[in-house]
From TrEMBL:
InterPro entries: CYP450_sterol_14alpha_dmase, Cyt_P450, Cyt_P450_CYP7A1-type, Cyt_P450_E_grp-IV, Cyt_P450_sf. Pathway: Lipid metabolism; bile acid biosynthesis. It comes from Delphinapterus leucas (Beluga whale). Keywords: Cholesterol metabolism, Endoplasmic reticulum, Heme, Iron, Lipid metabolism, Membrane, Metal-binding, Microsome, Monooxygenase, Oxidoreductase, Steroid metabolism, Sterol metabolism. The gene is LOC111185591. It holds the Pfam family p450. It is found in: Endoplasmic reticulum membrane; Microsome membrane. GO terms for biological process: bile acid biosynthetic process; cholesterol homeostasis; cholesterol metabolic process. This is 25/26-hydroxycholesterol 7alpha-hydroxylase. Belongs to the cytochrome P450 family.
Amino acid sequence: MCSPFILRPGEPPLIKGWLPYFGEALKLQKDPLGFMTTLQKQYGDVFTLFLGGNYITFILDPFQYQSVVKNQKLSFQMFTSKFLMRVFSVKKMMTYHDLNDKIHTSYQLLRGKHLDTLMENTMQTLKQVFEPQLLKTTSWDTEYLLTFCSSVIFEVTFTAIHGNVLAGDRKTFMTELRDDFFKFDGKFTHLASGIPIELLGNIKSIRTKLIKQLTTENLAKLQGWSEVVQMRQDILEKYYTPKDTEIGAHHLGLLWASVSNTVPTMFWTMYYLLRHPGAMAALRDEIDHLLQSTGQKKGPGFSIHLTREQLDSLVYLESTILEVLRLCSFSGIFRVVQEDLTLRLESQDCCLRKGDFVGIFPPVLHYDPEIFEAPEEFRFDRFTESGKKKTTFFKRGKKLKYYHMPFGFGVSKCPGRFLAIVEIKQLLVVFLTYFDSEIIDDKPLELNYNRFLFGIQYPDSDVLFRYKVKS
Ligand code: HEM
């Protein structure tokens, strides 16, 4: 869009703010939901916001999302290529569009029977992580909850997807990689918003180090790559020479996608359970019942084994995770307008300009009191009905197709969603079966909106909790 900006007929109302470049970004970051719902009351379900140098037309009515999903002239690829370049320094996606398509085909290896193998690997790593604890006496261990979740999720996910480090170096390798990863991840929104990496202290050298760890040569030192990494590598080798470090940048992208949202989801799930003993007790009951009905006794060592179907039968466990995602996801879903066009919505036609963005902001849906009663409250059984999974939610008396969108939608829907949920379920089953736990800092936490528009939000501080092997 050219400046000074003059609205053309058919274009939605524009809210520019007074700050050059940032526009309304600071207000949105301070209170994303409050700000968006105020604008919705004032301007309706369709309006354009000027944010960080971009014009983004938000469509807030969930019955209109379909028009965005179906429109072929709204591109996700253009959005994602720029993002990969800024954050991970992956350059080839900008020019080789078929590379993106090929990589997408590899994501089928994150579901179906392939997921069973990933689950097996996850259980093996959980065993490695927790077995030493189980052999300890029953004294309490005190830890920070976010630190605990980051460490376990990083190790479990990295090992399931990228493989295992040969014994000996394993712990040192994992600790160093994890620490570098979270330092890099801490500056992720800066990078995504286009701040040059040179202005971010030592992040450039940390990113270079991470990329190097994941180049062809170093990846080859890991054992048991998942099928998705194997296929990604095969595809990349057709586009790059084996020594090209950009291969490592692609793998860093996958590592980031697999860890960065799973960690805060795990954190909030544990946190809500620790602060809601009724929910914790209901989940323990559900898990105990399943273990009994599958003839599994909790012995002294680590012996649980559950299939995917058995995990899926834990409806209260799943509902708890869905509820956490509803409360803590502040992702935006974006598409780039490829040419001037008119989006036909039920209530109006909406003219859009080439190069601008269309955005959907699911938190407005997730916190809509017409869809979710008392939306601010954590209700672990919200996604259950008569002991079964609940999938029908209504607005204006009409059944909603989209009511829960922490994983995005359409072409960009998260391909790792099944793995993320299974992994969190496995960790919770292990943790609730073998350990008693208590929160120590019983202070209420808030979401820190540093990553608003990008996934699950982190808490504004860490909290202490303690756990011990059940006697
Ligand atoms: C609770 C955990 C997770 C959440 C909330 C989450 C959420 C998301 C969201 C919102 C997107 C972007 C959608 C968009 O821009 O429209 C995405 C993309 C992606 N996610 Fe996840 N994700 C999670 C875990 C995982 C895991 C475990 C993996 C494993 C590999 C993964 C792999 C990916 C990939 C590869 C993409 C990019 C897809 C593309 O380029 O189209 N995610 N995820």
